[in-house]
Amino acid sequence: MKLAAEDRRHQILEEATKLFSVEGYDKVTTKRLAAACGVTEPALYRYFASKELIYDAVLDSLESRLQCDEIYPELAVEKDIEQLLSRLATQLLDCSQKHQEVYRLLLYSALGGHAKAKAVYQSIRGRHAKFLQAQLDRLQKQGLISDSNTEITARSFMGMIFDCSLGLTLWKNSQGRVYRCDELVANNVPIFAAGLCRALPQK
Hints:
This protein is mainly α and 203 residues long. It is 71% helix and 0% strand. It has helices at residues 5-23, 30-37, 41-45, 51-65, 72-75, 81-98, 100-111, 115-141, 150-169, 181-197.
């Protein structure tokens, strides 16, 4: 099937993401990738000069493909801390499940020490942590949550969410029962919310 250049490039990145996420960089050959795309190796090289450049292009695409911050404008005016944390956690966990191959590749690459993957991972995780920190600062100023180091709190919450994502995405059959996203949110978010409200004066 003959595709337009941009469509073929997109197909190559999609197939490469699938193969790299399952088998890792070393085991995937350009011959296999070309076959998955229905083209010859020489045709593949017209779009990417090497497997390394394909891998770099896949990593470059991950940040935009894992965008899940469309609810930020609504959360930026939310006054209920439990609602804010619940919706943010649900959005992030759902995103990781909808894009499992992309997320798995990102995590494998980052854990494997790939410099670009680490940067992309930190950018994705860091963006959400900074947003949450800003909301915690806002709620503190409004007297709706107790005083705390909002940077530590935001990072800790993101750590919990991303660890749950790891369990859902990478460790499904090695950690006992597999919990649904809504079960994780329902169990963990109230603990964080209660801690942030514990020291507030009774009205």
